[in-house]
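queue> holo job accepted (fe (iii) ion)
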Amino acid sequence: MGKAAVSIHADTFQFFTRNPRGTRAKEIKTEDVERFLKLADAHAITPVLAHAPYILNACSKDERLRNLARDTMADDLNRMEYIPGNMYNFHPGCHVGQGVETGISYISQMLNQIIKPGQHTVILLETMAGKGSEIGGRFEELREIMDRVEYKSHVGVCLDTCHVWDGGYDIARHLDQVITEFDRIIGLNNLKAIHLNDSRNPLGSRKDRHAKIGEGFIGLEALARVVRHPALRKLPFYLETPNELDGYAREIGLMRKEWEKDS
Ligand code: FE
Ligand code: FE
Ligand code: ZN
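queue> job finished
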């Protein structure tokens, strides 16, 4: 993955810790870790963002599934210590009819069980589209989870542009307002990463279908304002657009050109 990132002139990347729809993971080989650390150092690739499997649900009704989420994430965090100083992003979960309050309490309990005071990885809660019973479609919900976490310096937020748009935050017409609201509720100091995606659906649709940059309802100009925004421009941006490698190369070039306009 590191080599692919270098080949398209990326200076960071996101990866899945294991099959996004499963939970099995490969053994870690020390040679691989060393090779990656060298490559990352040579090409200034930092920070990398790991993404937890989608299927995990920390606030499932089923205790076995909650435990699976906890154990898988704890294992991922142990693995992340091989490449310290990076970040681990996860979808807070779906409360599946138990209510937001119950969901939030399960999620924060899990975080308190897996976070070790000395760990070198920051865990990111992802802003969600609010599809179905997803938690994290409102900034207040993420705030509530963070408030209940004991080691607060080990958690932060990853803002997904498609998700917040689908959740009803108008980043195309009112970016400053959305950022102000984020700051008031969560705090910009807790914003650690951006998932940069266009959306296949209009504002507030709660669908979560990503589009290529400039081919969705958010649009190229609005996403260019996101990468250039003074409160955001120093953050790492990760594309999750439906592309192959050449498409990512094109979008990175496109967004970097916009980013450079203001530097
Ligand atoms: Fe995600
Ligand atoms: Fe995302
Ligand atoms: Zn998504």
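queue> The longest strand covers residues 155-160.
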